[in-house]
């Protein structure tokens, strides 16, 4: 007897992984592994140059699919058209300066560039090249062209390049490129035209630490995960992202320019500098309200029979109120976060009025709530009186809701 409701196979998202000819091609193997292990159907399209670095057998074994390398292979299936047409996402990693140039100018002299021309799905480029090549005006113009057309071009990382060179141009961590791809796929058709393209956003994350002596500090439980989720989702939506990170220990999100800081004073300096040309500033970091009034140059000793001297506290600068009151540019949006332990809504409304920001994300925190968790829930209050409730779920879902509200106000 046949079952009344036969189980229908679930279609796996189709991803095209383009690999161009750079030394970072070997890192694309890790990206491919993550894509396949998370349930994606991956078609690898390497350029002829890429095959000098990683062979066809490797791509085939890791993807479980035959590798497409030539326009003339299986001509009856019209691969130069069909591969791009069928894709849910095309990601090129690494994307060399040559590949970016050919894509920007609409050239179609191999299977990868033909695929890019026929794709009507979201396209992500993860560039990797020497610093001089990345900074060359021709490359910068090509990147700008691709971004104007709706492609997500991830900013390369800074670090060791080939030989003894160091600088910006390193392929971002494959795990973080995967997270960007995952976020782009999650947005579906909305990702074809990234709504934050051309925007510069600043995000603060983590918790500041205020030193008491060389080994002790006053801090908080913030992990930075919500701020990093905001940075990742902004990159996936096409924004140029500056992430001011305070004591997080998390891997840098692909495509974000990360500025590490320690104290509230350092965070203020970094945020004000980055906000000078920003369209939006999101203050997700847990900034200490107070710091010790005196820093002990040596470790404070425990002495028998003596009670420790009281720790005098002084106020830290109110960064959210400062950037809300003195916008660096007309139309700049400012988003604050309010971590409350009681009277969450009432305290949130009061803080929104007091700080003067455009949006305030209010959530309840505690030893086992929000801090360090992968999930969050919040109420987002707007200065115009609007309220948006975000149910309990992944922090990336809350991040996307924040950017939905920001994008609508920027437009």
TrEMBL record:
<dbReference type="Pfam" id="PF04127">
    <property type="entry name" value="DFP"/>
</dbReference>
<dbReference type="GO" id="GO:0004632">
    <property type="term" value="F:phosphopantothenate--cysteine ligase activity"/>
</dbReference>
<feature type="domain" description="Flavoprotein">
    <location>
        <begin position="14"/>
        <end position="183"/>
    </location>
</feature>
<comment type="similarity">
    <text>In the C-terminal section; belongs to the PPC synthetase family.</text>
</comment>
<keyword id="KW-0460">Magnesium</keyword>
<feature type="binding site">
    <location>
        <position position="299"/>
    </location>
    <ligand>
        <name>CTP</name>
    </ligand>
</feature>
<dbReference type="Pfam" id="PF02441">
    <property type="entry name" value="Flavoprotein"/>
</dbReference>
<protein>
    <recommendedName>
        <fullName>Coenzyme A biosynthesis bifunctional protein CoaBC</fullName>
        <ecNumber>4.1.1.36</ecNumber>
        <ecNumber>6.3.2.5</ecNumber>
    </recommendedName>
</protein>
<feature type="region of interest" description="Phosphopantothenoylcysteine decarboxylase">
    <location>
        <begin position="1"/>
        <end position="200"/>
    </location>
</feature>
<comment type="function">
    <text>Catalyzes two steps in the biosynthesis of coenzyme A. In the first step cysteine is conjugated to 4'-phosphopantothenate to form 4-phosphopantothenoylcysteine, in the latter compound is decarboxylated to form 4'-phosphopantotheine.</text>
</comment>
<feature type="region of interest" description="Phosphopantothenate--cysteine ligase">
    <location>
        <begin position="201"/>
        <end position="411"/>
    </location>
</feature>
<keyword id="KW-0288">FMN</keyword>
<feature type="binding site">
    <location>
        <position position="289"/>
    </location>
    <ligand>
        <name>CTP</name>
    </ligand>
</feature>
<dbReference type="InterPro" id="IPR003382">
    <property type="entry name" value="Flavoprotein"/>
</dbReference>
<comment type="pathway">
    <text>Cofactor biosynthesis; coenzyme A biosynthesis; CoA from (R)-pantothenate: step 2/5.</text>
</comment>
<dbReference type="GO" id="GO:0004633">
    <property type="term" value="F:phosphopantothenoylcysteine decarboxylase activity"/>
</dbReference>
<keyword id="KW-0511">Multifunctional enzyme</keyword>
<dbReference type="InterPro" id="IPR036551">
    <property type="entry name" value="Flavin_trans-like"/>
</dbReference>
<feature type="domain" description="DNA/pantothenate metabolism flavoprotein C-terminal">
    <location>
        <begin position="196"/>
        <end position="408"/>
    </location>
</feature>
<feature type="binding site">
    <location>
        <position position="351"/>
    </location>
    <ligand>
        <name>CTP</name>
    </ligand>
</feature>
<comment type="function">
    <text>Catalyzes two sequential steps in the biosynthesis of coenzyme A. In the first step cysteine is conjugated to 4'-phosphopantothenate to form 4-phosphopantothenoylcysteine. In the second step the latter compound is decarboxylated to form 4'-phosphopantotheine.</text>
</comment>
<comment type="pathway">
    <text>Cofactor biosynthesis; coenzyme A biosynthesis; CoA from (R)-pantothenate: step 3/5.</text>
</comment>
<dbReference type="InterPro" id="IPR007085">
    <property type="entry name" value="DNA/pantothenate-metab_flavo_C"/>
</dbReference>
<dbReference type="InterPro" id="IPR005252">
    <property type="entry name" value="CoaBC"/>
</dbReference>
<feature type="binding site">
    <location>
        <position position="355"/>
    </location>
    <ligand>
        <name>CTP</name>
    </ligand>
</feature>
<keyword id="KW-0456">Lyase</keyword>
<dbReference type="InterPro" id="IPR035929">
    <property type="entry name" value="CoaB-like_sf"/>
</dbReference>
<keyword id="KW-0210">Decarboxylase</keyword>
<keyword id="KW-0479">Metal-binding</keyword>
<feature type="binding site">
    <location>
        <begin position="317"/>
        <end position="320"/>
    </location>
    <ligand>
        <name>CTP</name>
    </ligand>
</feature>
<feature type="binding site">
    <location>
        <position position="337"/>
    </location>
    <ligand>
        <name>CTP</name>
    </ligand>
</feature>
<comment type="similarity">
    <text>In the N-terminal section; belongs to the HFCD (homo-oligomeric flavin containing Cys decarboxylase) superfamily.</text>
</comment>
<keyword id="KW-0285">Flavoprotein</keyword>
<keyword id="KW-0436">Ligase</keyword>
